[in-house]
Write a structure and sequence with these properties.
There is one protein chain. With about 90 residues, the protein is an alpha+beta fold. It has a domain of about 50 residues: Arc Repressor Mutant, subunit A (Orthogonal Bundle). It is about 40% helix and about 10% strand. It has four helices and three strands, in the order βααββαα. The chain has a three-stranded antiparallel sheet. β2 and β3 form a beta hairpin. It is globular.
Length: about 90
Amino acid sequence: MQAAKVRPQVYTVAEIAQMLAVSPRVVRDLIRKGDLPALRIGRAYRIPRKAAAAYLARVMPATTRAAAKSRLRLDDAQSGFLFPVGTMQ
């Protein structure tokens, strides 16, 4: 009898970090801030599959959304600065 491959219902911090292309420390910070729901088992965190999918849907840009208007002003594009010169005190 062949065993069926079972997908885990939870991800580890390392797996989520690999999916998001960030370090595990960033994922742990997201968990501590409450942005990414997780279960703590002993000293390790486990992120439920549904919570990971909901987080990814929330942070990933919508591809069907119309192109957003550029937030750069003409002065910003000419100077190359994020903020126009003279606006930061």
